[in-house]
Specification:
Blueprint lengths: L1 H38 L4 E3 L7 E3 L2 H5 L2 E4 L1 E5 L2 E10 L4 E5 L4 E6 L6 E2 L4 E6 L1 H18 L6 H20 L4 H5 L7 E5 L4 E6 L6 E2 L4 E6 L3 E9 L11 E6 L7 E8 L9 E9 L10 E7 L3 E7 L4 E3 L2 E7 L4 E10 L6 E6 L6 E5 L1 H11 L5
Antiparallel strand pairs: 1-2, 2-22, 3-24, 4-19, 5-14, 5-18, 6-13, 7-9, 7-12, 8-11, 9-10, 11-13, 14-17, 15-16, 15-18, 16-17, 19-23, 20-21, 21-22, 21-24, 22-23
Helix pairs in contact: 3-4
Length: about 375
């Protein structure tokens, strides 16, 4: 009986000891779990004095991030941009019909090269015949009143001048007016400038009305290249500045020209300004809509660069994360320009020299930012 009692007593002591050990083990384990949960809490959002919103990171998140400063670097002594070749609109002419009638003959076709004064079409128009008859009658009257009074002679001359002016307004040139011998309904149209027929709507037998466009002419002696510059480069260029252009069609040939126009407007989406470059076009090799690479020699300047790894692209925009104060991180939208240094990007807005930017772990910080806002990254 005492042996059994001793066995029970020993078993009781053993159970008590195990329960005590388990209780002690649970206490440290529970503290570690609580610490782990606190370290993975959602980052805190902070906004001070109505300023931009910032995110406060904990020591664990900060330890996983690497930093780099936004810095200024020397720009090369030239600017490069791409553009498209167009006609010089000062050397484009639209030929319209000034009378009602019908096209009797078409003498040129689209893409033909024509010389100034060359016959391009023949119109049939009773309006032309009537105006010519009035002119011939006024001319005959003015010639037959040599013995009339000065007032009558002046009146006859005014009638002749009015008839000549009417023919001029109908598009008949001075040499054609001087050659009129008899009224005729057919009228020959001539090219007002030398150039290529870039658009033709003249069809034989078709009816025309005043104001109808028949042809568009454009000269290729000099062409324009329309290109874009970032707004922070505009101060480095000026009208009359020399440049070179290279096309994919003629990669081994350099075409030279100058800056002819600088747009007064800035595109708010791309922060670019358009320029028009007047390019010499020997042999008419450059054609409208061709693409060209433009190189402009300029004075040296400065560019602000950040690591490519610091950029996050979302919703058609680029963003960076900047350390402002202590553990606070601010998200900023930046404008990005062209740059050819490997591993870096040029920023033209949103960042200042010396800003401390997240360069490593950017995607993780971006995910925490969306998490703090209750969004999915």
């Amino acid at each position: 009986m005492s042996l059994l009692g001793g066995t029970v007593a020993r078993r009781g002591l053993t159970v008590f000891f195990l329960l005590s050990v388990m209780a002690c083990g649970r206490s440290p384990g529970g503290t570690a779990s609580h610490q782990e949960e606190s370290e993975t809490e959602t980052p805190k959002l902070v906004q001070q004095g109505g300023g931009p919103e910032s995110m406060q990171l904990g020591p664990k998140e900060l330890a996983a991030v690497s930093w780099e400063m936004a810095r200024s670097v020397e720009l090369p002594g030239f600017l490069e941009t791409s553009g498209q070749i167009t006609f010089d609109d000062r050397k484009v002419a639209t030929i319209i019909s000034r009378v009602a009638g019908r096209i009797e003959e078409v003498r040129v076709s689209q893409w033909d090269y024509v010389h100034r004064g060359q016959a391009i079409a023949t119109l049939y128009s009773p309006d032309i015949m009537t105006a010519e008859a009035e002119y011939l009658q006024a001319k005959a009257t003015a010639s037959s009143i040599g013995n009339a009074s000065p007032e009558e002679q002046e009146f006859a001359r005014s009638l002749l001048e009015a008839a000549r002016r009417k023919l001029d307004l109908l598009g008949i040139e001075a040499q054609q007016i001087a050659a009129i011998q008899a009224a005729a309904p057919n009228f020959v149209m001539h090219a007002p400038i030398s150039g290529n027929i870039v658009q033709s709507q003249a069809l034989r037998g078709s009816a025309v009305n005043p104001g109808d466009v028949l042809y568009s002419l454009g000269t290729l002696e000099d062409v324009w290249v329309t290109a874009d510059l970032y707004e922070d480069d505009v101060a480095r260029v000026a009208v009359g500045q020399p440049l070179e252009a290279i096309t994919t069609a003629y990669p081994d040939e350099v075409f030279r020209g100058t800056i002819a126009r600088i747009s007064p407007n800035v595109d708010p989406n791309t922060h670019t300004v358009q320029i028009r470059c007047e390019i010499q076009n020997p042999g008419f090799r450059l054609k409208p809509q061709m693409l060209a690479r433009v190189k402009i020699v300029v004075r040296p300047g400065q560019a602000l660069v950040v690591p490519l790894s610091s950029l996050v692209f979302e919703s058609d925009s680029y963003f960076v994360y900047i350390n402002t104060i202590g553990q606070l991180i601010e998200r900023r939208k930046v404008g990005v320009g062209s740059w050819n240094q490997e591993g870096y990007a040029r920023v033209i807005s949103g960042v200042s020299p010396g800003d401390r930017i997240v360069a490593g772990g950017t995607l993780q910080v971006n995910a925490l930012w969306h998490q703090a806002h209750g969004e999915s990254s």
